[in-house]
Amino acid sequence: MGVEPVDVRSADIVWWLIVGACIIGGAILLPAVVFHGSGTLTRQRSGQFWLPHPFWLALGIPVALAVGQSALYDDNSKGLFFLAFLAGAALPPVVVLTVAARRLGFPTTWRRLFAGLGIGVGVSMPLAVALEAALAALVLAAVLPLRDVVADALDYDSLEEFFYSPAMVVALVYLAVVAPLVEELVKPIGAIVMAKGLRSRSEAFIVGMAGGVAFAAIENMLYQVAGIQTWAGMVALRSIGSVLHPLTAGMLGVAWFDLRQRRPGAGARLAAVFALAATLHALWNGGIALLLGAFGAYYFETDTWEVNVFDVGVPGALLVLLVLLSLLMWRMLWLVTDRLRGERPDLMPSRFTDARQLAGLALSLLLVTVPVGALAAPLIADYIPRLLEGA
Fold first, then answer.
1. What is the DSSP letter of 35?
2. In the predicted model, is pLDDT for residue 4 greater than 90?
3. Cβ–Cβ under 8 Å, residues 208 and 250
4. In 10 A of CB 127, how many CB atoms?
5. What pLDDT is stored for residue 70 in this prediction?
6. DSSP SS3 for 137
7. How far is 87 from 93, CA to CA, in rounded Å?
8. pTM value?
9. For the chain, domain boundaries
10. Where are the beta strands (DSSP E) in 175-271?
11. How far apart are the C-alpha atoms of 239 and 221, rounded to whole Å?
12. What is the pLDDT of residues 100-132, one digit of tens each?
């Protein structure tokens, strides 16, 4: 925020997005179809999937940030920026995949991994875009007041008026409800299709994660293009939540694997996992939408849209909430991989044998609920009355 806006033409941004999607898609689809597809036809065995230590992959993210942000201000370094653009989109979810795969002993082959990646980028992403567009069109066509709200949004004199309007509520509902439901439905398609041929739940988790990784990489490029004026900040923000898409896709991959293998209670577990994945996705999307809105209000110098939470403004409070949510998802990744390895820590004991267990559970709940309540309550208390005033 302390620097002048980057002077980037819209044509360049669209070009970066199209070419970037083609490069990432080609890097996934070409090996999947040409090499691994021919290997399948000739019944050749595929090698075990492997990647270097996640530390070295994660180290590439700050390097890409430094190189890309510097190159963005040099007209002669657009090629260098484009490489950083690709790295900033692809590396964060790949790091998450590598962490999980190493903990599980790399339980799948390159062929199955590329199949999961290929279905994610070639099927899941286009299907998600089509379904989300169709649902949005149906909602707007079926509910007349929503059409009026969207039309009125174009007449607001400032971003502040938009933030405290019903149009903002509609946008948040779409991002926090429609998008999570659709995306969590389509991301694990690869694991669903291959479930009968997968050897274990650990393999289903990694193949499911592969679909989420491909999905996240393309989505990261969309966000980078939308936030090109503060590109490094957008990459950093997306990196914080990089665990979301791989984690939820992996968990759903396991749930679908259990269902296809007809394991007892698989249907109920699939419903529960889908609800959990959609909830995590909704919380993240809602927080991101509000955070970007707050930054937008500041960037375009609107009058206020200021809410102080213990002398911390909206962006700071929301950023804390997103970091807490990210840490929670990383912890979930750790527990899920522990369970898949055969280590089964009890998330909640079936019975409390002593007071220490009960005290430990109570402390854990307090550590989660108190910070969330303390940060969220003032935001809601300020937002709702102002929304009603403008309705």
1. I
2. no
3. yes
4. 16
5. 83
6. helix
7. 11
8. 0.78
9. 10-342+364-390
10. none
11. 12
12. 999 999 999 888 898 888 888 888 888 988 888
Q: What are the structure tokens assigned to 296, written together?
A: 């937008």
Tokens 């510097």 sit on residue:
70
The two structure tokens encoding residue 46? 């595929």
The C-alpha angle 354, 355, 356, rounded to 5 degrees, equals 90
Query: Which residue do the tokens 């970091």 mark?
Result: 323
Q: Is the dihedral of CA 219, 379, 307, 150 positive or negative?
A: positive
In angstroms, the CA 94 to CA 179 distance is 22
Query: In angstroms, what CA-CA distances link 321 with 231, 250, 288, 318, 383?
Result: 22, 24, 10, 5, 17
Q: Where are the alpha helices (DSSP H) in the chain?
A: 10-30, 36-41, 54-71, 78-103, 110-119, 125-142, 144-153, 159-163, 166-173, 179-186, 189-194, 201-226, 231-240, 244-260, 266-299, 314-340, 355-390
Cβ contact 218:121 at 8 Å = yes
> What does the alpha-carbon distance between residue 143 and residue 11 come to, in Å, rounded to a whole number?
35
Give the model's pLDDT for residue 97: 96
Separation between Cα atoms, residue 121 and residue 109, nearest integer Å: 19
12-31 burial, b if ≥16 CB within 10 A, otherwise e?
A: eeeebbeebbebbbebbbeb
pLDDT at 35: 63
Q: For residue 369, is pLDDT > 50?
A: yes
Residue with tokens 């307090």: 366
Spatial CB neighbours of 379, under 8 Å, sequence gap ≥ 6: 307, 309, 314, 317, 318
| Both tokens assigned to 359 | 């005290």
* Residue 387 token pair: 């929304």
Please state the rounded mean pLDDT for residues 232-249: 91
Give the tens place of pLDDT for each residue, 60-70: 999 999 888 88
Q: What residues pair up with 309 in beta bridges, in sequence order?
A: 312
Name the token pair of 86: 């690709």
Q: Which amino acid is at 151?
A: A
Percent of the chain's residues with pLDDT above 90:
24
| Residue among 326, 278, 67, 301 at smallest CA distance from 176 | 278
